[in-house]
Design brief:
This protein has 193 residues and is α/β, with parallel strands linked by helices. It has one domain: Rossmann fold (3-Layer(aba) Sandwich). It is 42% helix and 17% strand. The protein is built from seven helices and seven strands. A seven-stranded parallel sheet has the order 4-3-2-1-5-6-7, with helices on both faces. Helix 2 links the parallel strand 2 and strand 3.
Length: 193
Amino acid sequence: MSRTFRRVAVYCGSSTRVDPAYLTAARAVGRGLAERGIAIVYGGGRVGLMGELAEGALAAGGEVIGVITETLLGLEVGHDGLSELFVTQGMQSRKTMMSQLADAFIALPGGWGTLDELFEAATWTQLNHHMKPVGLLNINDYYNGLIAFLMHAEREGFVRPSHAGMIQVSHDLTTLLDRLQRCEIPRLGAWKP
């Protein structure tokens, strides 16, 4: 099976207090997706990895769709140069809209919000709420600890073997996109609690 992605939701941090290598990598991801003709759906911010992601894609002629809450827009962190910017009332409606707009999900390094979005997308895939693949771009080994924990969760029986590979992982965008295009998503009826 091979999927084609028109739009990919990218989850990432908005902090500016990070190693500049993360910011550079986020800009490169934006450029890389744009060069492949893949539009980006993201949190609509102009700071941190979010801002660099958007700027990289826009500079390469890509389409960038932001989805931001009224509260965050009011804090003046919204990006005003996007292809399109949707404003939602709250976080749940923001995440739902991003999910509806995207064909797949990729998490770059980030904090609480990124982890929340990543795990919600993965849970929705596991429950077949949508049949969209989820990936981690493991920039600078940022997610090594999380990957080890997920392997531990499988060993302890909390993540089924059929779901263990549901979150695809790579250090390289091209490899990750290839894995996301080809990964199998288990059907809900194929397993029992």
